[in-house]
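Fold it.
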Amino acid sequence: QVQLVQSGGGLVQAGGSLRLSCAASGYIFRLHTMAWYRQAPGKQRELVATIGRPGTTTYVDSVKGRFTISRDNAKNTVYLQMNSLKPEDTAVYYCNKMSGVAYWGQGTQVTVSS
């Protein structure tokens, strides 16, 4: 069955960096677009970044220039490198298999203190 297992995250001061990882299994990873979403308390889940099959990327405006999504098809893993973190980046982050049937990772908390 399809599984997306996330790791990384935690507590960091403003200006710091974190890297999230999402290891996929149960499907042909390299054929599917992957994404990272986040959900802050009291807010709707927000699409943060996507990466397509050829590695093309998109980002929400609020993270452009600070976050980088990447993938390693040999390891069936998608990453989100987050630099220059701000308190408003605090949220639970979810990886997502975007194309075909959607699946979600378990979520990981990112907390940025001011």
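The CA atoms of residues 13 and 113 lie 5 Å apart.
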